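PROTOCOL LOG
Step 1. Enter all chains and additional molecules of the complex.
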Amino acid sequence: MPRADLADLVERGAQVMTVCNACRYCEQYCPVFPAMERRTSFAKADLAYLANLCHNCGECLYACQYAPPHEFGINVPLTLAEIRVRSYEEYCWPRALGGFFRRQGVRTAFLLAGAFAVVMWLLASIAGRARLWPTDRSADFYAVIPHAVMVAAFGSVFVFSLIAIGTGLVRFWRDVNHNGRGASGPADGVRPFVRRARPFGRAFHDALTLRHLQPGSVDCVSSEEDRSLWRRWFHHFTLYGFLLCFASTVVAAIYHTVFGWLAPYSYSSLPVILGALGGGGLILGPAGLFLLRRERDPALGGGILKGLDESFIALLFLTAVTGLALLFLRHQSGMGVVLVIHLAFVLALFVTLPYGKFVHSLYRLLALLIDAREERSTSR
Amino acid sequence: MTIPDTCDVAVLGGGNAALSAALTARLAGRHVIVIESAPREFRGGNSRHTRNLRCMHDSPTDVLTDRYSEDEFFSDLLRVNGGETDEALARLVIRRSAKCAEWMKRFGVRFQSALRGTMHLARTNAFFLGGGKAVMNSYYAAAARLGIEVVYDTMVEGLDVIDGLCHGVRLRMGAMQPVLRPKTVVIATGGFESNLEWLKQAWGDAADNFIVRGTPYNTGVPLKLMLDAGAQPVGDPRACHAIAVDARAPRFDGGIVTRLDCIPLGIVVNERGERFADEGEDVWPKRYASWGMLIAGQPNQTAFCIVDAKASGRFMPSVFPPVAANTIRSLATTLSLPPDRLDATVSAFNDAVRPGTFDLDSLDNCRTEGLPVNKSHWAQRIETPPFWGYPLKPGITFTYLGLRVNEHANVLASSGEPMRNVFAAGEVMAGNILRKGYLAGIGMTIGTVFGRIAGESASHAAR
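Step 2. Run joint prediction.
Step 3. Record the structure below.
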């Protein structure tokens, strides 16, 4: 897909929003339209905000009297999807890596994981072959990759990813609140964060329930005639699976550093239970989303996100599959190989976090937070 | 695409009235075919551009606030149409409007919640979630589930009416010209506002300057066929629901976004730079529908709304940007108006403005005195740059000339006898109730109520 010029995207977005703002028939579908009504013109930052607020439920395309083939050709979900993907690139840090958003795909995911696997394999081999093919069935992961190496490699990648994502989010927040004409105005910076928790609560509630994939309390569309609850549910499996896996890692780190309890942990231990449940979610959720996105009406803009979606889906799915495989094969002699492959996928996932689909969750959460604050300040 | 030779109920048209009739007849067990002239993408006639329907109700509901009695609804109707109505049919529509929203919900139609939204009409009107096209999508999906046959891109070319009975519907589907022989026919094909030749018969060359807000498929062919076959007309061929739209709007199908709501905030002049009507006569929702006709009476059917910076942000934005200038004279030049004349008009207006307290939400005391045409409310001096100008044209929503019907939706012959198997619903018979002016949302009310009546009557007649 040829990359649209940023100025063209902004111009098109402003045209679409001008039509929407004069119509307003969709105003109770989702927060995008009320947020639009709080504005009279649509600069780059306003559009980035609206684009990240959009959950691509699709209702407004089918309800639109100006949708193609009407001469106005209004397609809000598609237009905002284009702007949304572009906004990830614009706000990303370092900017030079923004192009990676365009190169994401199943192939890059495999290439990256493959490269990490090869490197780890070589390093482990240099350190001695016995480590890769353990014979004692002790499930001693650190005999394959020493704990210090793991912590150093994953810790540095994780910290870098956090900084990169955090910088992007700060840029987005500043741009919308300062350059955009948000109703909250340029004067209030970070203080209301502390002063009032309610917008926070609402934003998290909306994000964690995916309320906006149920516009008007009805399941959202996958095409004009089809409604389904599965997109929301598979997303829930994915999100909560991810959070459970993260929790498992955190608990394991506490076991290790605070209590000195070393892996492997038993099947009935907290890290294993959390990880197994999370892994199940990360197999079911991404697999479901992968199938659903192929069924979805292409007019809703899925093509723009194909590479980003499929790369993230593949990495989550394979991280979970290899993780569960490791859990069940940890006492086998092939454990070392499975461990290397699992760690390679985890590393590939972490490395791509700031430059892939993962960022949608935090940009959208931030957009929901801005929306909750704007709504509060206008309804006062 | 093929079409059977016969059916119980042939519904001509594909908008709200048509689908209301079709769904009603199908639920009564009839074999129903809907014949829509538009392609699937543009199905739904003018209903795809609507946003609400007007409903009487005695107590608040989930989609309506407060109460709106039959008598209040009826007196609102009389006020806009100058008393020209068939009271029995009007009261029938009003009484049955109370059940419309609940009925529509059965087919998946969703409404906005009453306490939100920008329009402040939630007491009298129930707003569709997503607007009329979403309603039509729900109806068509329900029609498919229930087994109603729908054919798109199919024109009615002839109606074989003999002695008040319709024996056949001659169709054109691409190169094919099938003839359908239904037991009953429901005509729900709207007005003739998209038929420029017919409009010109009524309006002369002025019609060339009309903008048609809705579907280009409302050519009025079945209406003409029925009138030629001896059906009794109702309404004046020149009567229509027309509003002020931006002159830059597309010729057809511009819908809601081309309308301009700033008239009460400023003045309106014609091409000569002269005011010609009271811009502040009544609250905007009630005057909204009179400006199309007022502009149609001006030279070249053109007018210009002029406001100053005080109006900014006080009206719904339109899709076209205003022409802006820092002086009235330069605004006139950009709009191709005579600068001296416009300047004089604005000065005279400003001098005539009496002091008052501006309040757009009520009939305030800001008015002019001593002008040939005064502005009764919301008159404020036009003096704060930048000045904004919007070019205006009449935007036709639909025409009122239609088929006279009885309370069972039977089309009446010129003798006054009901045609036993021909029924009408929607804009094609709205003239029975409304022959001038307009009441927001009543078109959908008439369409839903008479669509259901036509569906019931046709089901009965098709037994």
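Step 4. Note key features.
The longest helix of chain B spans residues 442-461.
The mean pLDDT of chain B is 95.
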